[in-house]
């Protein structure tokens, strides 16, 4: 009985130390991770709107698909979208110029079936969307219907938010 109590106390002390160390490391690395995320978003926004110099995050109504919205001063709006694909969540940023044309699409995270669902991140699919108007019909990819349909649903959600901002 004495041995069980000794081992329990020892395990509790080790667990408390490990938890404390993890908390400390998280406290140190959380701001660095947040800064890197912001830098990645700004790089994506700069890629979508190469002529823009200022980007500001804007407040939008709560939305299950459109996570964040950004205004590229004098150039348009960009939306950070997260939507469920076939296997996993698909995250991307889509930008619209002030005339309602899709200025750019940057895939941030695609973890679907290799060779099928991952086609939504390939230039062929992205180029079929960029430069289209918000009123144009967007086509899905044969063989990657679920993933491409999800991306198009995300784009349509971003279009709805874009229309509400105009």
Explain what this protein looks like in three dimensions:
With 166 residues, the protein is α+β, with helices and mostly antiparallel strands. It has one domain. It is built from 3 helices and 5 strands. The protein has a 5-stranded antiparallel sheet with strand order 1-2-3-4-5, with helices on both faces. The longest helix is centred in the first third of the chain and has 47 residues. The model has no long low-confidence stretch (mean pLDDT 86).
Q: What labels would you give this structure?
A:
alpha+beta, 3 helices, 5-stranded antiparallel β-sheet, 166 residues
List the helices and strands and how they pair.
Elements: H1 2-48, E1 55-58, E2 66-72, E3 76-84, E4 89-97, E5 102-109, H2 123-129, H3 145-165
Task: Briefly characterize the structure.
By secondary structure, this protein is of the alpha+beta class. Helix content is 45%, strand content 22%.
Strand content: 15-25%
Order of helices and strands: HEEEEEHH
Largest sheet: 5 strands, antiparallel
Domains (count): 1
Mean pLDDT: 86
Strand order, biggest sheet? 1-2-3-4-5
Low-confidence stretches: none
Q: Work out the helicity level.
A: 40-55%
Structural class: alpha+beta
Query: What overall geometry do the principal axes of the alpha carbons give?
Result: elongated
Number of helices: 3
Distance from first to last alpha carbon: 72 Å
CA-atom Rg in angstroms:
22 Å
**Number of E strands:** 5
